[in-house]
Amino acid sequence: MANESTVQTSSTTALNPNQTGSIWGGGESPMKAEYGKLMMWFFLLSDALTFSAFLIAYGVARYSYPAYEGAAADFVYNPDAYWPIPEKVYNAIPFFHGLDAPLIFVGLMTFILILSSVTMVLAVEAGNTDALDPDTKQAEVQKWMLWTIFGGIIFLSCQAWEWAHFIEGTEQFMTGITADTFFGANLTQNQYGPPLFAAFFFFITGFHGMHVLSGVVLNIILFYNTVMGTYRKRGHYLMVEKIGLYWHFVDLVWVFVFTFFYLV
Amino acid sequence: MAHEDSSLSPQERHAAHVKKIWKVAGILAIATIIEFVFAFTLPIEDFKFLRIWIFILLTIVKAFYIVAEFMHLKGEVKSLMWSVLLPMIFIVWLLVAMLVEGATIFDIRF
């Protein structure tokens, strides 16, 4: 509390920012961040709490059901006996029907999303640097934004395929198939495990996919504005940085979803 | 970006930033590959908990690099950094509380 006396003085002279001793005394941004960026951080904090609640709820549900104890090779779907193991549920890739390729497709999706996060941070860097002239700067931001949008759309397409496959179902790892065997999944019943399993799949990956979709829409608006020269006239590309924070967050959430939903 | 060496020219600084970005991208890719290697080589029936801890550890490594470097939280003012990070304590608390709850539900049902 070395500057206690200056803080006290500042409370009496708070109306004149030039005379305050504390950075919290007014007249400057104590967190050295623009208002919109600060609010984006706090929005992401609240969003992180929501996603955590989803993932932790999944953890509880999984923990309160028996785990599959046998060898992975002997696994069969049994909705009543145990929680399914992810490497057998998510083992399909497009165009290779019946092939057992555990987690390959999800891994590919993870790479795509990480790469689109990299191109986004390159767009932010191009917008923030003072090393480029306005023309090159605009061109660079445009280029990296376009790659980011591309990555986001590919990811969403992969997820659409993944959902379609999950809903449609598979005959792999099923024993005793009869005329009334249930294939695929909906919110009340699924072939893989307890009803909660499919419900969590839809809610967690769906909520994340919704975020990616919003992110792609925001990125397209961002790209449009960059092309139209809006940020160039404004003199800064701070909007790219703010939307960039959101996009990285979506990637961050996927890292957690990938681990706790697909790997563990 | 005030914390950086001011003797560098804007071009050099830009080049250094871009290089750092690709380096972090490489780290994220390698962490994901390691996760895959462990997912395939450690049989689930023998190494259940070792696998889980490796995955959690690598996830935290990846989360650190995304938040610190890509979202640039490391370069922000300390008060901003802590006001984002400290509320995460609530998540840890919820996690511990709910896993205990899950174990209890399991004991009652099975």
Short description:
Chain A is mainly α. Chain A contains 8 helices and no strands.
Notes on the protein architecture:
The complex is a heterodimer of chains A (264) and B (110). Chain A is built from eight helices and no strands. Chain A is mainly alpha-helical and 264 residues long. Chain A folds into two domains: 1-30, no CATH class; 34-263, Four Helix Bundle (Hemerythrin (Met), subunit A), CATH 1.20.120.80. Chain B is mostly helical and 110 residues long. Chain B has two domains: 1-75; 77-110. Chain B is 76% helix and 0% strand. Chain B is built from four helices and no strands. In chain B, helix 1 (10-41) packs antiparallel against helix 2. The termini of chain B are far apart. The interface between A and B is large, with 61 and 58 residues.
Total number of distinct structural domains of chain B: 2
In CATH, the homologous superfamily of the largest domain in chain A goes by the name: Cytochrome c oxidase, subunit III, four-helix bundle
Average pLDDT score of chain B: 89
Gap between N and C termini of chain A: 48 Å
What's the story with the biggest beta sheet of chain A? none
Q: Which regions of chain A are unreliable across 5 or more consecutive residues at pLDDT < 50?
A: 1-14
* CATH class category name of the largest domain in chain A: Mainly Alpha
Could you report the average pLDDT of chain A, rounded to the nearest whole number?
Answer: 88
Biggest sheet record of chain B: none
Bulk shape of chain B: flat
CATH architecture of the largest domain in chain A: Up-down Bundle
Class by alpha and beta content of chain B: mainly alpha
Beta-strand content of chain B: under 5%
Q: Uncertain regions of chain B: pLDDT < 50 for 5+ in a row?
A: none
User: Termini separation of chain B (Å)?
Assistant: 56 Å
C-alpha-based Rg of chain A, rounded? 25 Å
